[in-house]
Amino acid sequence: MIQKTEAQPHLGRSISLSDLHLGYGGRDVIAGLSLEVRAGEFIALLGQSGCGKTTILRALAGFVPVRAGRISVGGTDMSRTPPEARGMAMMFQSYALWPHMSVAQNIAYGLKLRRRPRAEIRARVAEMAALVGLGDLTARKVQDLSGGQRQRVALARALAIDPPVLLLDEPLSNLDAGIRATMRHEIRALQQRLGLTTILVTHDREEAMSMADRVVILEQGRIAQAGTPEEIYHQPASPYVARFMGLGNRLEARVEQGLLRTGNGTLPTGGLHAPQGTPEGPAEILFRAESARLGPAPGPALALSGQVVSAFYLGSAYRHEIAVGDDRILVDAPQRHQAGTPVGLHVPATALSLFPARSQTSVTGQEAAMAAIPTL
Amino acid sequence: MISRKASLLLIAPALALMAALFLYPLGFSLVSAFRQEDGGGWGAGNFLRAWQFYSADIVFSLVIVGLSTLLVAFLAAAIAGYLTLGENRWCLAVLRWLYRWPLFIPFVVAAQLMRTFLAKNGMMNNALVELGLLTPFTTHSYLDWRGIVITFVWKQTPFVALLLAGAMAALDRSTIEAARNLGASRLRLLWDVVLPQVRPSFGTGLILSFVTMMSVLSVPMMINAQTPTLLTVDMAWRINAYGDYGLANALGLIAYAMTGLVAWFYLRQGLKENR
User: Fold this and answer.
1) Predicted TM-score of the model (pTM)
2) Containing domain of residue A86, as a range?
3) So which domain of life are we looking at (chain A) (predicted)?
4) Of A11, A62, A77, B80, which has the highest C-beta tally within 10 A?
């Protein structure tokens, strides 16, 4: 595993993206994105595939041309700088190791390009190999390494040139679950120790939250929300963010005279998380399976009644599918309840997120088509 | 499932064709190379005579074809490298469109073309005179060993470039981007990252080119009518003028040994690397 070595902590550079436009062919994937990253900060870009997160990272590295706007690093405009002159180190999803070189040659390549003396390169390779826990594997061929070891080589290669900015493109997605958890911790620890400004692209929210200082959630090329992991987790700004952060249960509701009504339950809107306000009329509420309870809950809660449809074991709890009227929701409980059992469930007010129902312009194609059918 | 015997029966026609059209003539020419001219019997007489008469041509063939292979390697790497790493769209389109043309031109036509191009008052010298770089008295003909090399390189570069560009296109692009990201220039990318990864294709293309050039008769016949010349010309001469199949076959075997040697070097290198 990673060993403590005498790596000098240094501060990475700040990054500023202003009104950035990026795209391929005739289409803008990113349109008008602005983001400030402090020196030494760890940012995670989180979003579904196709949301533009990798495009932003590749634009930072210089592989996607900037159509409009500015990328500046440490106050210097780098929008038009070619990739080889940016001095950023990127770690690729496939690791992109050079199969014809040994581990040591892979790690040394950046230094060789910088024409460092041979003795210095040798010392640095040994230092980097120790830093990422590669120890005595440096003479091996890359093909002889396991996935986890390759990942470490890629990290060592990126860090060897002492980069002010580290770009990580889904670095852990090819690893199995056990190693992934350890590597998250190790990369974070390294980043903290070296003080690197780091941008991580991922679609795994746990990865983003456990590693980053700030999480930026992207939706169709725009920032849906940016904030600390705690803020994003507890106070999602939109239904998209809420669903992305695991608020998987959705119920249609109405807000009437300061009261939330859904199915067979009511609750005052006072204590709810409602970032878009609580205008009267149709609304939706979202909450997590693990925050609802089968049975009474302390404090104000939304009480609903329903029937167990099925239950499955998660390890830490049983997850129950409950029919509430026509809706199906998921609720965790420590004991298994048989299918068909009528249950009363409670969702604490603090665990609910309330959003006004989507406006007509944002309904899905199917809903629009349904609405267009004239009633007989 | 088809039984073993039945499957043998299925490939029998193909095997028979191979045997009749390839193995038999090859075996026959090998055997006749060792057959003595006068009085029959076996011996290395043909080879002794071959060396006696044509040692200069053997060395000449090796040098000319070797030099051409080197130049082909250099140019094909440059073309395929630009096709893979170049960014100027206009240049890429033009190059992609142009470079394959010589592939579709037969050697004999290429030789004819070069005769008009490289002669003392050929197109190239005329153009240079027109440009004022030469006077009509200082021009000289390139229709000697240089003409052969130029024709071979012109004809074979696209073939190797085509193989090489295909192999480069199949590379994992991220390995190229990773090197660029660390600060590698185009030339270093090509030399350090791209070429080492396509070595098998490169080697195969060069060996096939070497073999092809060793076997071309029309180019040395038309461009370089003096001595020394390539072995193919000597073989044709032995057969057409003297009906001396023994010596022609001995020369053929020598040519075969030269290509075999090159292939062996290449294969040995490949094995060493995979170990």
Assistant:
1) 0.83
2) 15-234
3) Bacteria
4) B80
